[in-house]
Amino acid sequence: MRKASKNQSALLSGEEEKRKNTQYERKKYSSCPEFRRKKLQAQRRRYAQDNLHQKQRLLSFKRYYDNVQDKKKEEVIRRYREDATFRQQRKTYITKRYKEDATFRTRQKKHITDRYQSDAAFRSRQKFGMSQRYNTDQSYSQKKKQDFNLRYHSDPEFRRRFNQRCNQQRGTKLATNAAFSIFYKMQRALRIRRKYRQIVPHRPQPLIDPVMEAAIAAFRESIRHGPTYICTVCNRTMFPNQVKECKRQKYCKHAKVAAACLTGNYVHFCDSDCSTPCSVPQERLHEWICYTCDSHLSRGCIPPMAVVNNLELAPIPPELAAFNVLERQLIAKILPFAKIVALPKGQQRAVHGAVVCVPSEVEATVNSLPRPRAEVQLLQVKLKRHIKYKGYQHFYNVNMKNVLAGLAKLKETHSEYKDVFINETATFDCLLEEEEPIEEEEPRQKEEPRHEEEPSIPEEDRDVDLEEIFKSQNEPGQLEADEEEQEELRPGLSLDTCMQPPDIAQEILSYGDGVFSVAPAQGNKPVGFFTIPKLEAMAFPVQFPTGENTLDEARTVSLSPSLYFNSRLFAADTRFASDQSYLFFAQFVTETHLVTNSMSIQMRKGKSKTKDG
User: Fold this and answer.
1) Cβ neighbours, 10 Å, residue 504
2) Taking the mean position of all CA atoms in its chain, how far away is CA 237?
3) Where would I find the H helices in 83-177?
């Protein structure tokens, strides 16, 4: 027992002494260069002379490498993902070595190819990354196109496989996609037509003078990017040659005027939310000013089309933004009617005749329509000139929930809708009694509500009922004249109306009961454009949700209708330019104003008496 205890204590003391010697040697190895040199020489000598020791060292190195290799890979991957500096260093090193070392380049290509063919996840990542880079990097996409063209023309096997794959995909798509089949046939027809024109000689094209060619090329270059530059004063969209970079220190002599006019509304300033690089167009990063506004500000004057000249636009509330054409007509207090015709060439629209503005019975019309039980329920509504006519001007599905919400919003914000009363319950008291519909005698012409301000309407014309006007237009003689005029405008083709679009889907949906007909302007008398204040705001309540800053608004600098509508239609806010009704409204008001001014000038210049007395 004592002997075993002594042996155990001797063993422990030997291990303790060995551990101390090891620590001492390590400490001396790290601190004493001479000891470290002798130790290394002894190990090299033993490694070269003792084969058993050499095998043991190699086996130890192999076990260590096998255990540590995976950990090193994991550590490198972790650092590459988390450490941006380390990631950039590795990219730079690999890129440089790939360009300079041919062996490394070959090995990398083979490794990527093998992994792309065997690893589905890696293949998917590569495809996504290449697609993203192709769409965002212009130089990369150009390089890929050049490489593909070069390979297609130089490698017959690649060209054969590519054509075979395209033919297979096209055949599958033609068999499964009807729209693509129609589009492909149209493309083939156009290709044959172009080929025919190249083969068959045609009339020689007129020669263009070189000076004219240079002018056309310069014009096309100036409009190549479109009107994407926004003036900071009038907020109109313009071409590059119409604006200059705004330098605010230039207007320091008239600092108050410049501070009021230079809005900077559409200038983008990068912040933490912006991507790198910023995706906003380059022209939005600078402040621009048109030459007209620059000329006025240099003289210390407020430009007539400046936003501060009572031309600000209130944002459209969400309750009004989603209205369709008929829902806008239901809440408008003024309905402007205009005959819109299609021109013989190009089928562009043009207004024919005068624009007539008629007050609308908003309360009676909206209160007469029932309220659906669910928010998603829609009503099929026809807008007519007269309730007895079979023809209609608009036929749309109307969401009464949206209409009521929009009217409630207008009562809060619009100055001309404060007196509107909306009955929340479903009633039919205001609907006219159902009578047998009669055929509308007037041919279906383009007749669309248009907001236009008429300079003056004689008193005797204002007292005429709109129904009488329609009846007078529907007389047999007038009907024949209209038909002849229609043939002149568009020979051989019937003319539909913007107010009465031929929609087969709506016709199918309108069978049976459940279609409501309204005529909000029936029996009312036309009004003049300039005789009713805020007529523009009442005719277009969606564009003017507050009823302010219309054509007849009092302004610091007087503004003609031509400049006013120029500011509205070219504004960066497209609420006016996207409304076809407002376009013709602006055209008719401007033309009427010009004609009236010309008439007044002729009257002033005329002589009171002629030469013969």
Assistant:
1) 7
2) 15
3) 84-100, 102-118, 120-136, 138-154, 156-176
Rounded mean pLDDT of 119-147? 89
Check: CB of residue 235 under 8 Å from CB of residue 265.
Answer: yes
Please choose, from the candidates 539, 527, 590, 532, the residue with its C-alpha nearest in 3D space to the C-alpha of residue 561: 590
- Residue 477 token pair: 């003689």
Q: What is the pLDDT of residue 502?
A: 42
One-letter amino acid at 459 equals: E
Give the Cα separation of 557 and 306 in Å (integer).
Answer: 9
**Residue 234 · residue 206 · CB < 8 Å:** no
CA distance 392 to 440: 9
Closest residue by Cα to residue 319 from 417, 450, 240: 417
Q: Say if residues 448 and 581 touch (Cβ distance below 8 Å).
A: yes
Q: What is d(CA 240, CA 243) in angstroms, rounded to the nearest whole number?
A: 6
Amino acid in the structure at residue 196? Y
Q: Are 365 and 421 in contact (CB under 8 A)?
A: no
Which of the residue ranges 282-296, 343-357, 488-502, 520-534 would you say has the lowest mean pLDDT? 488-502
In this structure, the chain runs to a length of: 613
Over its C-alpha atoms, the chain yields an Rg (Å, rounded) of: 41
Residue 319: is it exposed, middle or buried by C-beta count within 10 angstroms (0-12/13-18/19+)?
Answer: buried
Q: How many helices and strands in the chain, by DSSP H and E?
A: 23, 10
Tens-place pLDDT, residues 52-93? 878 887 888 777 777 777 778 888 888 888 888 998 998 898
Specify whether the CB–CB gap between 317 and 413 falls below 8 A: yes
Least Cα distance to 564 among 452, 418, 478 occurs for: 452
* Interatomic CA distance for residues 481 and 155, integer angstroms: 70
Q: Does residue 498 or residue 246 have the better pLDDT? A: 246
Closest CA to 420 of 332, 357, 337, 358: 332
User: CB under 8 Å to 87, separation ≥6 — which residues?
Assistant: 79, 80, 81
Which element (helix H / strand E) includes 34? helix 33-49
Q: How many whole angstroms separate alpha carbon 368 and alpha carbon 498? A: 25
CA angle 257, 311, 579 (to 5 degrees): 150
Which has the higher per-residue pLDDT, 160 or 354?
160
446 SS3 class: strand
Distance CA 591, CA 613 (A): 36
- Contact yes or no for 61/47 (Cβ under 8 A): no
Helical H runs in 434-569? Answer: 459-462, 466-473, 476-489, 504-509, 535-539, 561-569
Compute the distance between CA of residue 175 and CA of residue 170 in angstroms, rounded to an integer: 9
Give the H or E element holding residue 405. helix 400-413
Phi, psi of 407 (to 5 degrees): -65, -40
In 200-339, which residue ranges form alpha helices assigned H by DSSP?
210-222, 255-261, 291-298, 318-321, 325-331
